[in-house]
Amino acid sequence: MNYEFIDLQINNHIATVSLNRTKSLNAINREFAKEITMMFRELDVMDDVWVIILKSNARIFCAGLDLKEMTLSDHKDMARLFKIPAEDFYIFECCHAIDDCRKPVICAVHSQCVGFGLDIAAACDMVLCTQDASFSLREARIGIVADVGGLQRLPYIIGLANTKHMAYTGRFFSAQEVERMGLIVQICPDMDALLSAADTLAAEITKSAPLAVQNTKEVLNYGRTATIREGINMAVHKNMLLLTSQDCKESFVAFLEKRKPEFKGQ
Q: What class has domain 6-205?
C-alpha cells in the first residue's frame, strides 16, 4: 500500500521506519494505526529485511492517541461507548503487528513518548533514547485504562511494581528512571547519537543468522505465556528445523575454515 504517514528506507538488511505524521506530533489516529499495522506486516515477509529501526521524524517521538480526531465525531454517539467499532480495528492491532513481526525491532525514542507511544515502544524488542527523553503511561490522567497492550507487555519488561507506578500516576518519567526500570538499553546524548547507536546495534544483529534471530524472538515471545518446559520444547523444535538451514551449515563450515560466516537468511 501507499503510505502517507510513514517513510521507509532499506539498506544492508536494515529497514528504517520513520513515523512521519509530523504536524500532529505522530498522534495515532485510525489511518496512522492502519499504516503502522500494514507496514510491519509487509516487513515481516520481506526476506531481505533482517532488522527494523523504528524512529520519529516529528519534534517528539509520539504524542499518544489523537484524542481530538478520535473523539470529535464520537462523543455524541453513545453506542460507541459500549462496543469497539470495526473502523477502530487497527488502533488495537498496530502494536500487535510490531510485536508479532518476526524481525527484531529497535525503537529509537527522542523527546516525549506519551501513552500510545509508550505502548508502541513496549511492543518493540529494544528501546534506545536520547538523554532528554521522557515517558508517560498517560491514560489514567484522562480517565481511561491503557488498552492497546502496554499494561500487558510492560510488566514483562520493567516488572509489575514499576508498571503500576507508571500507570497509576500517569506522570512523566525521565530516561534515567526508565533505564533503571529496564525499559531502556542505551541513553544517547542527542538525536544524532541516538540514530548512530540504533544503526550500530542493528548492524551488530545482522551479523547473526537471521532465521535464528527470528526464531529466537518467537521463542521469547512464546515464553511470556508458556511454562519453562513448554518454552524449551518449542526451542528444541525450532532447532530441529534450523539445523537443516543453509545458514546453519554455513556457520559450521566457516568455523572449520576459521572465517566469518556469510549468512543469506536461508
A: alpha beta
